[in-house]
Every structure is written in structure tokens, then in C-alpha cells.
Amino acid sequence: MFENFVSSLPGAVYLGLLYALMALGVYITFRILDFPDLTVDGSFTTGAATAAVMISHGVSPWLASLTAILAGMLAGACTGLLHTKGKINGLLSGILMMIALYSINLRILGMPNVSIMGENTVLSAFPPIPFMIVVVLIFKFALDAFMKTDLGLSLRATGDNKRMIRSFGANTDNTTILGISLSNGLVALSGALIAQQSSFADATSGIGMIVIGLASVIIGEAIFGAKTVFRATLAVILGSIVYRIVISLALQIKGFETSDLKLITAVIVIIALVFPTVRSAIKQRGAAKKRSAELLKSLETTPGGER
């Protein structure tokens, strides 16, 4: 079992880096905007489908990946418009767009799946793991830099307190649309790279992506903390890698099969969500015991408390 796990470790790290871009996108909506965006399940497939179809027709994989980002941003913008201009609940906006994207993705693909086996991709020209480390870090530092700009600060403020930022004259509708667009652009890029890594795109490849993204964000924050944007984005990337390593380890356990992947993911997310609460409760209990001990000690040292 241990030998199998060690041999699968590079593959788990590689997948973690590929999905890290998607996790960064989920971080923007889930943590920064505080927006429950389910468009992710659709835009991931949109990116994969767009890149795969373009590459299969002889288009440069770099141009195909860029087009995938734009397609994802367009999907995110539609969700943002439904929520801000259409006044539709955020969760419902994402669900509606996710449903619409399923049909749109089938239109893009023209069939349930498209193979790009043997085609040149952006991943085939470089060593996979070092290349993905560079790509992920570029987007990580670009996101960190953006969040320090006036527009980025407005985006963060929109997620913290919309009423307050409106009082300063900022247009929260525009910042919300921008944030959701950027998020789905990253998600679509992740889908495009996954399609190039697996050499095919499937109409159902995006199912459950939001859970994987949330798992990466929550695990990263629980283990590495998120006190600053720099630390938070780094935690999300590392969380994506840790998540894939845990999945790889779990699948080595006897009794678990590949079909149990969704169940394992759900259990990991539950543990990651419960862990901070349990840790906080233990800390509070320890602090209460310490205060009780100090109080008893102070009573014993006072004249009235001498025995």
C-alpha cells in the first residue's frame, strides 16, 4: 500500500496543481465576494470543451486556452448579471447558469465528448510539474497584486459589506460581476488544462467541481491559515495539493474504489468544516480551565482565602 501511495504521489501533486487554478477561482467567489456560485460546475466544462474543440481543429493550444478563459469569464458575467441586474438570488443565479451551460457545452462539443489524443498541448512541451508550478504561481501573484489595487480593494469590500462600500460611491454591481467573471475565467482555464492533460473533454466533466474547489479552500485555510490575501491564496493552492494527496491515499485503502471518490470528497469536506469548530471549542475549554485555575490560585493567596 505504502509503495503504491509513494508511486502515485507525483501524479497527485500534478493534479493538485491543475485543480489549484479552479480552487483560486472558487476562493474569489466563496471567500472574497461571499457569493455561492454554482456556475463553476458548468464553466469548468466550458473551458474544457472550448479548448478541446479548438485544438482538435488545429488551433494553437495557447490560443485555445486563452479562449477558454474568455468563455469562462463570459459565463461568470452572465451569472453576475442575473444576480445584480435581474435581482435573482445568488444561489439560484448560479444554478440557472449551470443548467444552461450544460446544453451550451454540448453545443460546443457537438457530441458527448471530444478526444485530442496525439494533439500538441501546452502541457506536452514542458516538464509537467515544474510548468504547472510556474503557471499557478503566476496567477497567484497576479491575483495578490490585483487585490491590492483600488479595484481589488473595492472587490474585497463588496464581499465584506455592500452597504458600506455603496456609501463611498462604489458600484457593487460592477465589482460583483467582475469578481464572478474572474472566478469563472480561472475555473475555465483549469478545465482547459485538465482536458489537455487527459486528452479529452467530456460534457459531464464539471460535475462536482464546486465541492472539490470548496474542499481545497477549506482544507488550505484549516491547515495553513488565511490572515492575509497572500497567505490565503497560497493556502488554497496547497489545500488543492493536500486534497489530491488525501484522495490518492484514501484510494489505496482496501475496500475503497474509484466509484467512491465523491463519497470520500464529501467526508473530507465535512471533516475540514468541523475541524475549526472542534479546535476552537478545545481552545475555549482550555482557556476556561486556565482562568479557573488562576482564580483559585488568587483566592488562595488572599488573606480571606487562606486555609
Automatic annotation (TrEMBL):
It comes from the Bacteria. This is ABC transporter permease. It comes from Saccharibacillus sacchari.
